[in-house]
Amino acid sequence: MSVTLVTGCAGFIGMHCAQRLLERGERVVGIDNLNAYYDVGLKHARLGRLRGQGEFTFEQIDVADRDAMHALFARVRPHRVLHLAAQAGVRYSIDQPDDYTASNLLGFGNILQGCRAQQVEHLVFASSSSVYGGNAKLPFSERDAVDHPVSYYAATKKANEV
Questions:
Q1: What is the pLDDT of residue 22?
Q2: Angle between helices 107-117 and 66-76 (to 10 degrees)
Q3: Alpha helices by DSSP H, 11-151
Q4: What is the pTM of this model?
């Protein structure tokens, strides 16, 4: 049976995506570091909704942990990866830039390396509207220039896109 790895599975979008995959009968391995950026109780409640649904497995892993991610990819051998894990928040990136470097840059690198090593069929990555920076044109378009991020968070997400 094929496996889909969902990073950030305790987040709002991650939980709903994992739930939808499980409803389709897919096997899902979800990971999340369960950090305290926002209410951890809410994250546990979301995981509670996923547990017991079909073929769901959860592992508390930080995508920035190179060794843990390498071991996870080697053990699980996912066919697809839905990468939603990231340190979010524009204002928080001003005070805690190292958290963004670890999760959004090193963590994304670990995801790419895991996908390469295991020859993952498909990777879906979630960026952020923050990459559009001070762009005044609405609505945003994927063709818009995004060369002037206004926060470190936006810069990390733009770096991931590149």
A1: 97
A2: 30
A3: 12-23, 40-50, 66-76, 92-95, 97-100, 107-117
A4: 0.92
